Amino acid sequence: MRTQMIILLALCLGMLPLNANNPQRKEPYPQQRNIVYLNPAPLLVPLAMKQSDYLQFCLSQDKNFNGRNTILSKPVPWCMFNPHQVLKTGTWYWRFRSVSKSGDELPWGETYSFIIEEATPKFATPPFATFLENIPQQYPRIYCFLNDHLEEARKDMRSHPEFEEMITDSRKALAMDFSTDTQPYKHVFTMSEYCDNLNTAYQMLQQQVYADKMVANVRCLLPIEPDERFVQNDFSAGELVYLLACTYENCYAYFSSEEREQIEARIMKILSYYYEGRILGREENMFFDEHIWQFTIRRFVQASLVVYDKYPLAKEYLEYYYELWNTRGPATGFNRDGVWHNGANYFSANAVSLSYMPTLFSYITGTDFLQHPWYKNAGMGTAYTWQPGSLSAGFGDGHEKMNGKPLRIRSAFADFLARNTGDPYATWYSSLNDRYKTEPETRLYRLASGKHRPMNHELPINAPKAVWFRDCGEMIANSSLNNLEQNLSLSFRSSPFGSGNHTHSNQNAFNLHYAGKAIYHAAGHYMNFSDPHNLLSYRNTRAHNTMLINGIGQPFTTDANGYIVRMFNGDHISYALGDASRAYCGISNVRLWKRSFEKYQLEQSPENGFGETSLKKYRRHIFLLHPNKIVIYDELEAGEEVRWDWLLHSPVKFEIDKQSSLLTTVYEAMNVKSVAQLFCEQKSDITQTDTYAAAPNEKIAQRGEDFTPSWALTASFGPSKANRILTIIQVEAAGDRTVEIVRSNNRFQCGEWVIDAELNAKKPASLSIHNTSNKAVFSYGKQNLKIGGQSYSSKAKGNSVLFDQVDGKWETQEMGDQRIQSMGKW
Question: Where is each Heparinase II/III-like C-terminal domain found (predicted)?
Answer without folding.
Answer: 466-663
